[in-house]
Amino acid sequence: MKLRINLLPRSTIISLLMCLTLSGCAFNSIFISYPSQIAPYKQQLNSPTANVNLDAIAKEITSNDGLLYAQESGRMAQINGQFDKSKTYYEQAIAAYKAFDDQAKVSVSDMGAKASSLLLNDNAIPYRGPGYERIMLHQYQALNYLFAADAQGAMVEVRRSNELQASEQARYQKSQKSVQAMANGTIDAEVNKLGKTAGTVTSSFLNAYSYYTTGLLYELLGQPNDAFIDYRKAAQISPNNHYLQQDLVRLAKQLSMPQYDEFKRRWGDAQLAKAGQGQVVMLIERGFVPEKQSLTVPFTIDGNWQTISLATYQSSGRQAAPATVQGLGTVLKAQPIANIDALAINALKEDLPAALVRQALRVYAKAEMAQSVRSDSKRRNDQIDAGAIAMQIFNVITEQADRRSWLTLPQQAQIARQYVDQGQYDISLGNAQNTKIEVKADKTTLIWIIDTGNRTRFYSIIL
């Protein structure tokens, strides 16, 4: 069955194309790449002194990319230590995800967005976010509640994060049948390239940092059995992390679990606090997750210029170095728990087959439109047809890769733990300015360190 596209009059098409081209700002990421929109805010976050101005970006929460802007606004507020404001923005993002979940039928607006994507690009489709972003949204919301002294709210978000980890795994397993059915040389080549870029991480939903954070909150809020389960899941993903190994040995010993002897043999006995000591736990986030790049290939169909553009990631070859923390008596060296950039790369790899199907439909639709305009020109014996020229310009300009993603997430997460005597300490991360923390006997001081490159922020709470 051949696809038919009924065209508007040529003059109307030209006017419409000019309007679309000149009013790109009104279409969010359709004409202006998302990374370029977020770059000024990341620069503000990375400034040694200034805080980010959220007013402009928060206004975009009602736009086509509203879910993404809500996530970015919440993260930026969180980095600045505005946990209540961050919580409000994250609630809007959570509500947007729920609205997508509740759509039992394809809405009229969604149909319009999908139709627009056939003639424009994938940026016309409302942003829905990959699974790893949604999982981290609840992880970060749990930390918001914790640092706002709301333990009950934190536990609700911890459970939601765990449920999403399980549901994303089930969704991924189902999607693999579609991936295998659509396999071809182009898909295989790009999937293999992205796989090499992601390194040893093989999926977007297996996030050791999220499991560790939920396990930590379970433990700090008095549910050690649940903490043990999540620590063990984290260890299956990140098996070489010494601090995670010690957490498992310690809890297995405290809970008299049968795994204790095995863990002790593999990783050594548990290190426990001495009298008068408290525990320092550090969550350390470094850098920003990389931006998607655009891969564009021009070609002609029946003499008309077309392009295809796909999002991809380029391997930077750089990973954040393990953080060193001074000021606790001995130098404490953190260890990586998760590479968030690898999760992002795998999410793109998992979405690639569907993106290529949309790309093929779009190329066909644009080619049909161009051919129709050209045929109309021949029937009138036009020497120069503005409509045909405009169509070719339109096809090239509007073919923009979907480079949207949550760009204020960290590149890498690291963890560290140590028992120290109670008292006041001046700690620093590398060459960052010192910050004061307090350690109480038989308590845990949780320190959240966010290093954006030129600026390091410390947030702590005693539990």
UniProtKB/TrEMBL annotation:
<dbReference type="Pfam" id="PF13181">
    <property type="entry name" value="TPR_8"/>
</dbReference>
<protein>
    <recommendedName>
        <fullName>Tetratricopeptide TPR_2 repeat protein</fullName>
    </recommendedName>
</protein>
<dbReference type="InterPro" id="IPR019734">
    <property type="entry name" value="TPR_rpt"/>
</dbReference>
<feature type="repeat" description="TPR">
    <location>
        <begin position="208"/>
        <end position="241"/>
    </location>
</feature>
<keyword id="KW-0802">TPR repeat</keyword>
<feature type="transmembrane region" description="Helical">
    <location>
        <begin position="12"/>
        <end position="34"/>
    </location>
</feature>
<dbReference type="InterPro" id="IPR011990">
    <property type="entry name" value="TPR-like_helical_dom_sf"/>
</dbReference>
<keyword id="KW-0472">Membrane</keyword>
<keyword id="KW-0812">Transmembrane</keyword>
<keyword id="KW-1133">Transmembrane helix</keyword>
